[in-house]
Amino acid sequence: MKFNLRFLFIALFICTISIAQNKGTISGVLTDKEMNNEVLPFANVLVKGTNISVNTDVDGKYSLSVNPGNYTLIFSFLGYESVETPVAVKANETVVINQTLSSGSYTLKDVVVKSATVNKQKESALLLDQKNAVSFKAAIGAEEIARKGVNDVANAVAKVSGVSKQDDSGNVFVRGLGDRYNVTTLNGLPLPSNNPANKNILLEIFSTNIVDNIGISKTFEAQNYADFGGANIDISAKKFSGSPFITFSIGTGANTNVLGQDHFYLQDGPSYTGFKKVGIPDAPLLPYSYTTSWDRQENKNVLNAFYTLSGGKKFNINDESSIGTFVTGSFSAKNKYTEGYSRGGITSDGDIFSDFVRTAYKHNTTTTVMGTADYKINNKNSIFFTSLFLNSSDQDYSEYEGTNQNFDGGGDATQQITGFIKRGTFERTQLIVNQLTGKNKFNDQWNLNWGVGYSISNSAIPDRMQNSFVYAPNAIDYTFFTNSNINNHRFFQDLKENEIAANVALTYNFKKGSDDTYKGKVTVGYSGKFKDVDYDMEQYSFFPDRSTISFPKEDIHHVDNYLDPAHWGSSYSNRIHQEYNGNLDINAAFLNVQYSLTERLSVILGARLEQLTQNVYYITTTVPGGDSSNDSKFNILPSLISKYTLTDKQNLKFSASKTYTLPQFKEKVPIIYEDVAQAYEGNPNLYASTNYNFDLGWEFFPKAGELISVTAFGKIIQNPINEMFLNSSSNDISYANTGDKGTVAGVEVEFRKDIFEIEKNDNLKTKLSFDANGSYLYTNQDLSNDKVNNENDFGANFTFTESKLTGASNFLANANISFLNQFTESKDISATVSYSYFSDKLAVIGTSRVGNMVDKAVNKLDFILNTSLTKSLKLGLIYNNILNPTFERVQEQGKVPGKEAIGDIIVTSYKAGSDLRLTLNYTF
Questions:
Q1: What are the pLDDT digits (tens) for 714-727?
Q2: Contact indicator for 593, 602 with CB cutoff of 8 Å
Q3: Contact yes or no for 225/487 (Cβ under 8 A)
Q4: Whole-angstrom distance between the N-terminal and C-terminal Cα of the chain?
């Protein structure tokens, strides 16, 4: 019996070898027509009528073995037209079949690609990913970003339905909900803030050359951070794919407002590149001890400049293992000039306490260096490393001329309240992010995704300076105005944020079907972040002796001559020091269960169990002995997402969830932040809001790159946080939980359509496409005087008993029309006209019969032209903000009962100017 078994094994082994030796091989390379015939990784190659399939590797190569015979190969990739090719295979021979894929007229049907990764730079692939997902998804990829001529992440996100960007602050609003309601992440891990006033880092400081795609999730899922009400904005760092390359881009341009000025001024000290940081001198209470001048300096570099250098290459370790590397560095410098009203302290009768015309000269820079390494250990395990360094700077030199009721100059009644203020502000942010993420596939059922990150943010205002002037007693000359600490000062601020974050998710697929796919999966994981915040500010205020100092008006810009040892004499100065430090710790466990109840209906049930601790300790001028504001809470946060497939082109989706919104550290600290015309003060009694979120959406995908969708959404916000005027003559602004409930309801519509597409010889095409999206939003919240009075150290006397939510626009719209004409495989021209609009949005809630402060509606029109002259050389022209609208913030006094005759009063106004930009890009 033993002999017979041994004989059987030997016979089977010989037969197996014989069969293998009689097989033939099919191999080749797939290329991507949409990306100038670069190799196409992770595409699917299937032998028709069999279960034999393989995916192309990172170089687009594939190879499979079959018995001799005649076959048909099916080449496919998400969002691309499948191609069938006949092939004859002979024993012991290799047949080479190379194939090019394109989007063509491909209709969006479900394509099952095992172990494949979507190329999320492409519009069509992102749309198909959106279609196949059970959850709500929206994204903008590198391909669409380039087509629309977007240079920074904030403007890229603003192209997505329901999203708008506020130009003066850089904040992004999603469905009318601003900074406090959004979450910003890089590769799924949180990013620190670069400004004590903001929860999120300003997206406009990220250049789009680091971006593979940006996902905007407007519905909550249990694996995401739950301090969420608007959207989770996730930036996916760019990975290397295709052939090795080096790309250099250079650009220049100008702002039309800047070109219209004979002179362009900035404060002394900061460098052109934005790296220089001025320190506090040894004797800071002496105004002449500073190494920087009090006076403005003329800047000759008025043109905008843009430089980018990028490169990528893959290093093969063995047949299964490789490392794809991508490195990019960029620098941009932009100048702006604005002129308009800057007013504050407007009373219920329309009297203006502070009434200035402001001229502002601005110089902004961004320097970015990022490297990524995509280590493919084998077909089941990979690690992705991202390292990012960013330096952004903002210089703002502003001059204010007008009246202030506190001014006490010489001359007649008008001259006595007339004066001049100059302020130079330099803000610099340095951000360092290091992340390591990984994917491990143990088998068809078990998968592990994980990520860890450490980020450091240092945001500083080094050496802000301000001088204030009024008429001297002779009513001809000028002298210093010295009424308060803010009038003549040097200011130094430092905000440091260190954050450690970790995510891990273990997934188990269960209930395998006849088609080798699983009907369900369970994901269990941990999500945590630990943030430490340290804020410190020093202000040195100066009070020159007005009885001995006066000068002609032109010497306002030669203050160094009067703040010198010879003039200081009996003058005096003082120091103000304020600080706070805090921590935000989140530890969460989450569970998601996804299951296909039928072939058409799938659901995801989720739960997030989260322990949250937010502590802050502060020392301020109003609390010199120090105090703290501490909160700790355990949250149970459920979520439900469902998808019903109406047809192979249509989906119906529903989502419901519970989340929360935290107050920011600055909002909880009673520090007074003084601008020239407006002051802000924190409130240590603030606490988190609770959000209940609902979405119902219909999606229709006619073909690749096309979409029609309608989404209705609603939110109930318990104890919403808002900005409000304090009951004071100066109308300072603070923060409070202003009522018991806020309600949000709205609808979003998105439309993407190819108007026509003409296929020419050699697969070249001429194409005209159109996309548009619009959102209508209704918001309402109750305003309770009793609630604010009982919960805070200050009172409230709201002008109205209800209002919109702050930051909410009733209507948002974006529209783009794009034309592409391909002359050859390496020569083409494309043009895009892009339009955006947002309606009025509430900024500050009025009290004591003072009307609400509202940002007025704005239209924006851009034009983008790109042409490929050769395979390596490209030119681009961008004309931004063609309409150059006036940005206005008004106090709606005319809507206050009994004050209708006063009407709207302009608080701030300016025109940003149009921007022209010419770029040249060369790829080696």
A1: 999 999 998 888 87
A2: no
A3: no
A4: 69
Q: What percentage of the chain's residues is helix, strand, coil (to nearest 5)? A: 10, 55, 35
CB atoms within 10 A of CB 540: 25
Whether 905 contacts 185, CB under 8 Å? no
Give the type of residue at 17.
I
What integer pLDDT is reported at residue 256 of this predicted model?
97
CB 447 within 8 A of CB 441: yes
Task: Give the per-residue pLDDT at 57.
Answer: 73
Query: What local confidence, expressed as pLDDT, does residue 501 receive?
Result: 95
**Range of 104-118, 313-327, 407-421, 799-813 with top mean pLDDT:** 407-421
Q: How does pLDDT run across 228-246, given as a tens digit for each residue?
A: 888 888 888 888 877 899 9
Taking a C-beta distance cutoff of 8 angstroms, is the pair 681, 732 a contact? yes
Using an 8 Å Cβ cutoff, are 56 and 40 in contact? yes
89-125: per-residue pLDDT in tens? 988 888 999 988 875 543 333 333 333 344 555 666 7
By the 8 A CB rule, do 58 and 314 touch? yes
Instruction: Compute the distance between CA of residue 787 and CA of residue 802 in angstroms, rounded to an integer.
Output: 13
Structure-block tokens of residue 259: 């070109």
Residue 178 has which token pair? 């601003």
CA distance 639 to 641: 7
User: Tokens 């799938």 appear where?
Assistant: 602
Give the model's confidence band at 487: pLDDT under 50 very low, under 70 low, under 90 confident, else very high: very high
CB 226 within 8 A of CB 588: yes
Per the structure block, which two tokens stand in for 636? 């149970």
E-assigned strand segments in 182-321: 183-186, 189-190, 211-217, 232-237, 245-255, 265-266, 297-298, 304-316
| HEC sequence for 494-523 | EEEEEEEEEEEEEEEEEEECCCCCEEEEEE
Which one, of 922, 920, 916, 921, lies nearest residue 304 by Cα? 916
The predicted structure's pLDDT at residue 354 = 94
Strand order in the sheet with 211-217: 139-141, 211-217, 232-237, 183-186, 189-190
| Nearest by Cα to 26 from 49, 40, 51, 47 | 47
pTM for the full predicted model:
0.83
Integer Cα distance of 837 and 835 in angstroms: 7
15's CB contacts (< 8 A; 6+ apart) are none
Other Cβ atoms within 10 Å of 630 Cβ, number: 13
Mean pLDDT within 361-390: 93
Distance CA 612, CA 635 (A): 8
Residue 315, both tokens:
């290093």
Q: Cα 340 vs. chain centroid, distance in angstroms?
A: 28
So what's the pLDDT on residue 687? 92
Question: What is the average pLDDT across 244-254?
Answer: 94
More confident residue, 383 or 238: 383
Tokens in use for 175?
């469905």
Residue 861 and residue 863: Cα distance in Å, rounded?
7
